[in-house]
Amino acid sequence: MDETEFMRGRVYGADHDDAGPRPDRAYAELVGGPLDGLLLDVTGRTDRDPHEVALTTEIGRYGPGGRAVYVRREDGRRFDWQGDTPGTP
Length: 89
What we know:
The protein is mainly beta. It contains 1 helix and 5 strands. A 5-stranded mixed beta sheet has the order 2-1-5-4-3, with no helix packed on it.
């Protein structure tokens, strides 16, 4: 199993030992970039919430502390990668 296959279907930010989706939560898929295939918990989000998220990741362009920026599609079920940005000190 390669790293991409290992990450697909896992929830961003979840404990590594229990990273699968839960039936009582709503998720959107992250598409492209370093977090491709991970699920983002969007439970309780509305159309008024920000359409862009900057998620901390160690595997992006800026290494530890860097962020991967994703923008929500209109259907709300996917977030597309827009690029990486350095984290704040």
